[in-house]
Design brief:
The protein is of the alpha/beta class. About 45% of the residues lie in helices and about 15% in strands. The radius of gyration is 23 Å and the shape is elongated. Bound molecules: alpha-D-ribofuranose.
Length: about 325
Amino acid sequence: MSTIRDVAKLAGVSVATVSRVLNKNGYVNKETEQKVTRAIEQLGYQPNAVARGLAGKRTGTIALILPDIANPFFPEIARAVEDVAHRHGYTVILCNSDDQGHKEQSYIEVLKKKYIDGIIFASNTLGEEDVQKMQRNKIPLVVIDRAPNRQLCSVIRSRNYEGAKLAVQHLLDAGCKKIAHIYGPQEFVTAKERLAGYEESVMHFPWFSPSLMVPGYFRVDGGLNAVKELLAKHPDVDGIFAGNDLMAIGALKGLHQLGVRVPHDVALIGFDGISLTEITEPELSTVAQPIYEMGSLAAKVLIEKIETGLEEIQLHELDVTIVERESTRRRQAT
Ligand code: RIB
């Protein structure tokens, strides 16, 4: 039996366009509509009755639940989601959960009553029961970034473990002889994977010690305090990988306060790729996540689910890249 994807492929358009032709909602030019109609006839496609039924209940609204809109990483996600949603005729409701499970639960309850068409969730507390509850209520769901379990629903995330190994290798290539890690909250799978990537990369070195890994809580002040604790224990550390850019910015301030020169005495690299790393002194090297692409892809996957009723679970793990700036450009010791 032909699917909506077969129709889209034959007509040379997106699944969302086929859905707009079927449900007669949203703009489709005449030529495209004719191509889609011909493909439907040629394949003898029968629209999914559930998807068409759902079409009647649409509100043209999607919700984006983020854990901390004060962290510049998340507004860039929101920017991308809103751009794609707007292009497809959807409005976005932004919710801030403060990484608190009870706030996330209350948002889900409120959003259910508002008949929103779908939810994009950056959460670490989402459990199997929560996902099944949303599926029972026919609320399409996509999880982004912090995905506790990737079998439950579609997930868009970065390769955190591989990114941590890239960060350590970058510091080794810069000539660092003893590398420490400031890690984020380990209840977040993203922070956990970065810590694992760091540890796997350095544990074979004779200088390695677990005390080279200190918490920074994904915050600026956490990074500042962590670097002071680190250098008190290990004054010979000459490379630091921070598990996100905010902690790296805090570490940079802490190193300045200690009179430590970056990168001459200590090379420093962060993780995320937020724009603040371009205005620090020195500018910060980072492991850049494809933040805008993550948000854009999450919105496209969700809108396709809303408009087609397709339940297939998609896992997109996106590559990260090293952005080298002054904070790791170590000149030979003078
Ligand atoms: O800076 C916030 C962190 O939380 C980012 O690294 C992002 O991946 C999220 O997990």
